[in-house]
Design goal:
The chain is 84% helix and 0% strand. By secondary structure, the chain is an all-alpha fold. It has one domain. The model has no long low-confidence stretch (mean pLDDT 96).
């Protein structure tokens, strides 16, 4: 699978992840989510939705321009997303272990992590073929 498509799959999973977090109200159970949501709106649900829409829109913009068009910055952009999604994919299971049960975002985080690792592998292979 081409690196650009893997990146797009990662962004689709991120969108599903944002939906899972919103529907199951991560902003009520995870203090950092509550804090950043309150920075955006007095209504935590609204603030969380706005932030997640921005994240998904940013990811899709990264796909449509630098990644899909293979700009020189595409690799850096993709590596940043790998880092974000690896952290996301590790934080949710850790939070669930601490809480001793399901926490919002857990299910899709288990898809984010392997997809981010796969994207990292593709990026490394792409870099090796360019050298």
């Amino acid at each position: 699978m081409r690196t650009e498509r893997v990146f797009l799959v990662l962004m689709v999973i991120q969108a599903l992840h944002s939906i899972e977090e919103y529907v199951f109200r991560l902003f009520e159970s995870f203090p950092p989510a509550r804090f950043v949501s309150a920075l955006v709106s007095a209504d935590p649900a609204r603030g969380f939705a706005i932030l997640n829409l921005i994240i998904v829109a940013l990811g899709l913009c990264c796909y449509w321009w630098p990644v899909r068009r293979r700009w020189a910055s595409a690799s850096i952009v993709a590596w940043i997303w790998v880092g974000v999604e690896v952290v996301n994919g590790l934080t949710h299971p850790a939070w669930s272990i601490i809480q001793r049960g399901y926490t919002p975002g857990l299910i899709t985080s288990l898809m984010l992590l392997p997809c981010a690792v796969f994207l990292a592998t593709r990026l490394r292979l792409d870099g090796a073929t360019e050298a």
